Give the backbone structure.
Amino acid sequence: MLTKADISRLLTSGLQKAFMKGYDGVASFYPEFTTEIASNKSSEDYGWLGTTPQMQEWLDERAPKALNEN
């Protein structure tokens, strides 16, 4: 007999299977504009990237800001 807990588990596994089937059929295009660099560390620090600006609603004209020197 199915319970409410069983339904969410069954839906999740079915959706994951369908997603992976669709995902496998899609060609990757990121190698055209990126460089992949191998690492043997557990994490990397990219301090030279700087901080990203806060998102805001675009109402009218662009609001240029000073560039960070990184």
Remarks:
- Residues 18 and 44 are 33 Å apart (CA to CA).
- The chain is about 30% helix and 0% strand.
- The helical segments are 4-24.
